[in-house]
Design brief:
The protein has one helix and eleven strands. The strands form three sheets. Strands 1-4-5-9-8 form a five-stranded antiparallel β-sheet, with no helix packed on it. Strands 2-3-11-10 form a four-stranded antiparallel β-sheet, with no helix packed on it. The protein has a two-stranded antiparallel sheet with strand order 6-7. Strand 2 and strand 3 form a beta hairpin.
Amino acid sequence: MRKIGTAAAVLVAAGAALAGTAGTAGATTGQADRVRSATACPASWSSNTKSAEDATTKPLRNIRTGKHACYDRMVFDVKGATGKVGYHVGYTAKFRQSGTGDQIPVKGGAILEIVVNAPSYNPSNPAQKTYAGKPGKTLPGVDVTGYKTFRDTKFGSSIEGQTQVGLGVRTKLPFRVQQSGDKLIVDVAHTR
């Protein structure tokens, strides 16, 4: 009986030691995760206008968004684009539809106007839409409910080979624009 009691005491002590070690390991891992997150968050982005003059003859096929640890992301799919996709991205006081100048209301503390040098129609048959955006309406299939930075999306227009979108954000925050293959990516930071 004494051997069983001793064995049980040893197991309890070993379990307590392991639990203490696991707690320490978890605390260490938690710190490492916090450091990793802090260094992965954008520090050098700015809220200045960004643009590239490149153009593509490939049409815009889709716009989608995603949540990330340090930023919210909007992706423009320009399927088949092999070179650089041109763009003009910057903050504006009022979002106005290209071509008509009509003001389109966009919710949020600031409005990021995004113009992508890709039409949302077939260039050889402009009546054939490749992206179903309608002027003044929320982007089809895009729901930014629960995002930390994004507040609203509006389609502006698609004329002369360019597609215009209004992105409502919480406040004027730093952003970056990058291309990955045939996707143009706009990331807006959660903080300054």
